[in-house]
Design brief:
The structure is a homodimer. Chain A is of the alpha/beta class. Chain A is built from 14 helices and twelve strands. Chain A has helices at residues 4-13, 30-40, 44-62, 74-77, 80-96, 111-122, 148-160, 177-180, 189-201, 222-231, 249-252, 269-272, 274-277, 284-301, and strands at residues 17-21, 68-71, 100-107, 125-127, 130-132, 139-142, 164-170, 183-184, 187-188, 213-217, 237-239, 263-267. An eight-stranded parallel beta barrel of chain A has the order 1-2-3-6-7-10-11-12, surrounded by seven helices. A two-stranded antiparallel sheet of chain A has the order 4-5. Chain A has a two-stranded antiparallel sheet with strand order 8-9. At the A-B interface, α3, α4, α5, α6 and α7 of A face α3, α4, α5, α6 and α7 of B.
Amino acid sequence: MSFDRLIQRIVKTQNPTVVGLDPKLDYIPEHLKSAAFAQYGETLEGAAAAILAYNKGIIDAIYDVVPAVKPQCAFYERFGWQGMKALAETIAYAREKGMFVITDGKRNDIGSTMQAYAVAHLGEVSVGGNTFVPFGGDALTVNGYLGTDGISPLTEICNTRDAGIFVLVKTSNPSSGELQDRSLEGKPLYAAMGEMCEQWGSSCMGQYGYSAVGAVVGATYPEQLAEMRKAMPHTFLLVPGYGAQGGGARDVVGAFDEKGLGAIVNSSRAVLTAWQKQNRPGEEYAAAARDEAVRMREDITQYLPKISL
Amino acid sequence: MSFDRLIQRIVKTQNPTVVGLDPKLDYIPEHLKSAAFAQYGETLEGAAAAILAYNKGIIDAIYDVVPAVKPQCAFYERFGWQGMKALAETIAYAREKGMFVITDGKRNDIGSTMQAYAVAHLGEVSVGGNTFVPFGGDALTVNGYLGTDGISPLTEICNTRDAGIFVLVKTSNPSSGELQDRSLEGKPLYAAMGEMCEQWGSSCMGQYGYSAVGAVVGATYPEQLAEMRKAMPHTFLLVPGYGAQGGGARDVVGAFDEKGLGAIVNSSRAVLTAWQKQNRPGEEYAAAARDEAVRMREDITQYLPKISL
């Protein structure tokens, strides 16, 4: 349960990184767009088909060297329900290949509404006598602004369904400090959110010392990242902000524990657009993504111990 | 622009309330479920078809007396992309009938990701030479934990597309105080969030004194509601928590200004399940919803001045 499967995959691949599947049409090679538009026209269906084909190529190229993918919901919702269909199909495909899927939705609500999100993204839903998996991720990013009422429906599902959540603690963006860095009764607000994560996680501990309640802490704030690693010893960290947003390999060292575990670092744009930087259009786009993913693994693990349980 | 259209509809209907379209299968009369399942089976498509038929009946019954509907995304996502299709169709139907649609998604992210959400829910997206409306609401609920980077993509779209947002300030749930009531540099966190709303809204003011940046403040905390009305004079309030959650008509009086404007009060369950309480199954479910919506209008407006511009 919790993040144990993710941790096992990280150890197996010796790779504490996740590839963000944040598709923009500009990122997709022409041959994939042409094929999709030829079949569905320049429509939302066509865009969704191009995205799915593109994602499958990336997943095929990286699944044996990268433990996880993180599709960002917004880039699928942008193309309507047709885009959401591509999200569900992407998640199913990545899971078929054995990857751990973190659905980046930053969902938040209370009570039965949050339960509906939990079912949508981590669970199953019943219709009459049948049961369906709506989106089917392994973990979901969430926003804790509403307090325990917004989290307990998730920890319940984490305990019954081998799933996890990542709560926003200290985000990677320039304005994250406007609220998160301000002093809440003597400590930064993000630290208070971190304490709540440790508390929420106490009811759903995994076998490797980390609970099912993880936290998002950005690579762009290395001091806070190291501070939060220490302050949240049972909280697995999802670390955005490496690469395009400015965080480097040295900046994320503090996110890890002495076994090289405890965190997973995300890269989206650098992997997705590697073919453009490497000038490898056409089918080569996927190999370019793999090369960048391997480069990222080497970059980050050079400062870490051999990753072990 | 901003909430001007909503305000005009509130004045026209003399009704500062919104009906939350939060469909659960238990709320839907048997004849609608039977028809949908007969056509699509007990599947996600079947559930989505039942929800859409149910919503259309409610909208047909209330559109001339209620200014707005608020579909809650979670209850559609729960049924996968098929549910999201029903969400898009519900929004389009309500807008055809002239209703103002508040998509309750509590979305949050940064930069180009937040822009993708803004396009998804309030804007248009281009695919090749064509343009599409992905979900097409008039307003979106959002979470401001990430600061200005998460809001500015929205205020940009509000200025170009006659749309609005509602930022979570003080939510209606029991645990909302765990974070929101704590002291942030001398004042409650929710008050700091309220100040940010006023600031974000200053770039997108409407003609009636309210900006395109509204706030969510729950009916279950009447003191804070009245306090925030005064502290955020340009911020239109979306008030959940009336009815099933425990807020009464006297509790929401403080949300309104001296013209009976400045707020819209939500009710979901009481309207959606009115047919069960009134024991009016079958086609009568919609008339029961209308009766409850009218009762709610009378209940709330009895303490307000005649609503005027």
